[in-house]
Amino acid sequence: MLLALVGCAGSGRPDPTPLQPLEPKVTGRQVWNEDIGKISFPLAVSVNGGVFTVADDSGLVLALQAETGKEIWRAEVGDKLSAGVGSDGRFTSVVTRNNQLVTLQAGKVAWRKALPSRVVTAPLVAGERVFVVAVDRSVHAFDALDGRKLWTYQRPSDALNLASPSVLMPFKDTLVVGQGAKLAGLDPLVGSMRWEATLASPRGTNEVERLADVVGPAARVRDTLCARSYQAAVACVNAERGSTIWTRNAGGITGVGADDQMVIGVDATDRVSAWKISDGTPAWTVESLLYRSLSAPLVIGKAAVVGDVKGMVHWFARDTGEAVLRLPTDGSAIKSVPVASGLTLLVVTSDGGLYAFRPQ
Asked: Where are the domains of the chain?
């Protein structure tokens, strides 16, 4: 029997830490705002060729110009969603709560396929293929043109798996996917394994305590991929060789951001920490946002950006952790990991607010 857990706060979680006054060290402003329906699933915003593609609970999928917010197309899937959005700019895929993989082209539904297991990780669309990783860790590949099933990769599953977004991303000609506490590199043409790298060693006296599944998003910097193992570790691997470069014990339930200098992560109490990407040496820690249910971070320029449960977006200096900017949205929780297209940064709130910011 497969049981699933969602990494979320319990009822005994302390109140969010009140925000202290902040004198901005950099300038930035909201450049556009749009609205869609409410969002309760783990939305991943797709970024391709200057276009943001988003979706809401009801099955509305919307493509917008990143620079202006102008609508390019919208589509109604016709069912509530559990995962999305994956897009390569031509094909766009989401997964419904009834385990249907739905792929659109130019805002029209192209095909639907039934999936055998629940999915909470956004599909990956690449190389005219659509890839899906399910909660039971099975990986499925479909032809993006007609939905034809190409292959399935399935390894023995544990008694308890984590129902939280995993890692599913391309690296050159390799498909990288989370498999328990490991990252696996698969051949995207046939689904065979090329390499496997361990992020953490599960510990504990029961199945819940031993949960150490890889959680997304992961961050790629050239040949290095950095990711988090649920409540266990942050680690970086060489994706060319499939070898672990370093791993550090670090509790947390969300993915990480990185650039060529730092890896940034948020732990289970919303402490923000940075490690040097070269060797994992701790660089700084910030405790000013404890219990504010932070998003996974985005590292952009020389800043790390996170959103919180009250709809605030926070910028920290990448090298020091100093708070440099704070901007509001609609007051509801930031639901998506911040994403960027060029200089435009987008966050999406649980009430369906799309807020685009740009530095000045």
From this structure: 22-38+253-360
360 residues of the chain, pLDDT tens digit each: 344 444 444 457 899 999 999 999 999 999 999 999 999 999 999 999 999 999 999 999 999 999 999 999 999 999 999 999 999 999 999 999 999 999 999 999 999 999 999 999 999 999 999 999 999 999 999 999 999 999 999 987 666 677 899 999 999 999 999 999 999 999 999 999 999 999 998 776 666 666 779 999 999 999 999 999 999 999 999 999 999 999 999 999 999 999 999 999 999 999 999 999 999 999 999 999 999 999 999 999 999 999 999 999 999 999 999 999 999 999 999 999 999 999 999 999 999 999 999 987
Q: Is the torsion defined by CA of 14, 19, 20, 22 positive or negative?
A: positive
Q: Are 183 and 133 in contact, with CB atoms under 8 Å apart?
A: no
pTM of the predicted model, to two decimals? 0.94
Task: Give the contacts of 133 (CB within 8 A, at least 6 positions apart).
Answer: 119, 121, 139, 140, 166, 168, 177, 178
How far apart are alpha carbons 291 and 277 in whole angstroms?
26
Residue 192 structure tokens: 């065979």
Residue 120 Ramachandran class (φ > 0 left, ψ -120 to 50 alpha, else beta): alpha
Pairing mode of beta strands 224-229, 214-221: antiparallel
Cα(157)–Cα(335) distance, integer angstroms: 29
Query: Residue 330 gets which letter from DSSP?
Result: S
Q: Which element (helix H / strand E) includes 238?
A: strand 233-238
Q: Which residues contact 45 (CB under 8 A, 6 or more apart)?
A: 52, 53, 54, 85, 336, 337, 339, 346, 348
Which pair of tokens denotes residue 279? 């060797």
Per the CB < 8 A criterion, the answer to whether 179 and 158 are in contact is no
Superfamily in which the 22-38+253-360 domain is placed by CATH: YVTN repeat-like/Quinoprotein amine dehydrogenase (2.130.10.10)
